[in-house]
Amino acid sequence: xxxxxxxxxxxxxxxxxxxxxxxxxxxxxxxxxxxxxxxxxxxxxxxxxxxxxxxxxxxxxxxxxxxxxxxxxxxxxxxxxxxxxxxxxxxxxxxxxxxxxxxxxxxxxxxxxxxxxxxxxxxxxxxxxxxxxxxxxxxxxxxxxxxxxxxxxxxxxxxxxxxxxxxxxxxxxxxxxxxxxxxxxxxxxxxxxxxxxxxxxxxxxxxxxxxxxxxxxxxxxxxxxxxxxxxxxxxxxxxxxxxxxxxxxxxxxxxxxxxxxxxxxxxxxxxxxxxxxxxxxxxxxxxxxxxxxxxxxxxxxxxxxxxxxxxxxxxxxxxxxxxxxxxxxxxxxxxxxxxxxxxxxxxxxxxxxxxxxxxxxxxxxxxxxxxxxxxxxxxxxxxxxxxxxxxxxxxxxxxxxxxxxxxxxxxxxxxxxxxxxxxxxxxxxxxxxxxxxxxxxxxxxxxxxxxxxxxxxxxxxxxxxxxxxxxxxxxxxxxxxxxxxxxxxxxxxxxxxxx
Length: 499
Prior knowledge:
The chain has 4 domains: 11-45; 60-186, Glutaredoxin (3-Layer(aba) Sandwich), CATH 3.40.30.10; 203-458, Class I glutamine amidotransferase (GATase) domain (Rossmann fold); 474-499. The chain is 30% helix and 21% strand. It contains 10 helices and 20 strands. It has helices at 13-44, 60-68, 86-99, 114-124, 188-200, 227-235, 269-280, 300-306, 433-444, 468-498; strands at residues 73-78, 103-108, 141-145, 152-155, 160-166, 179-186, 205-210, 238-243, 257-261, 284-288, 309-318, 325-328, 330-331, 345-348, 351-355, 367-373, 378-380, 392-398, 413-417, 457-458. The strands form 5 sheets. Strands 8-7-9-10-19-18-16-13 form an 8-stranded mixed β-sheet. The protein has a 4-stranded mixed β-sheet with strand order 2-1-3-4, sandwiched between helices. The longest helix has 32 residues, at 13-44. Mean pLDDT is 81; it is low at 43-55 and 129-136.
């Protein structure tokens, strides 16, 4: 009979219409919620950049540079789209474009667009790897181009810092490379911002690195050399070169910053006179001492006392540490160290550098600030019986402008630190040591818009290590077992409905 419940269809037309209407209504509601969330997000929330590998946002320093940029800049990403970090670099460059529409971004995939790649090689005179085995790389490049300026070509390999680590495998039959390069830091923002500064500036500032007294050189790549220190300055668009003073060679007039890093022997009287004249003319000085010269005066100490800085002939020991390291977490309020308040410095046996206590300050005395300190549980090695306390390790000096008086080089600025090793190749990557180079140099050069924070970002790497057998098992699971289980389940449902 037609009225028999067993003979009725499972889904009547009315029920099918109700189910269809319900599905359409639910879909419409979900779409409406998505549209409303996007509207509220664009209206009331700021956009942010989130990378799966670097997890960064544009720093305040970069935003300051971008807001002041008036030149039109074309950034060409000459890259293999399947290369590591391509997506991170592209996304970061897109953030630069969104912050300043004068920056335009274009991409050329030299692997998949050979014709456009050849045009790029001709336009920017890019070398071919076949021209010479020592030729610079001709692939994975970021090219910054602005009208009236020579283009700047940045190799992609310079953006990511790597370290060698041994590879591991549970499969003894698997062929593998014993070591691999693991990415540890992403320098994209540091590099990109420095290149924009270079395009905006007519010429770089010049820093001279004093030599001739046992100082390490900018060319030294060993643990105690300053090659990385020089690179950090170059990234801030500061051209650095060595300088040896002679009786006929004073401090050059185009010297914007003089760096004296831990001389091992005393300076000659005529050299000290040249440095004294340089500071009196409004020069800028970064002076670094260390524990090795604590018992051997360099001759700079009396000159620095004239500017209100007292470099003690003793170094600081932090009882909180079992080593010679002094971890600096205390900073005063000063533009050269304000961005470091969330970071720390790792110094090695730093000498105490303190502000001179003048009973009768001279007229037009410079402003002297102690800007970095050891912990409260510190002592001087030469006076271990003294009660522990915090000691100043770094001083900043600024000579304010005097009405009616002008100096050839501007207004004198100094930063004097009790350690030089913390900026050497071995320790410059520790804590905020490298960041300090940028902040100190930009304050000394009076580039206040660049003192805000920016630095390399750590790379978080997610890896799944599988043996060859595990990979085969996973492949069969994904391509066979899971789809097969769905088919079997569907067959059971169909069979149950037939009954």
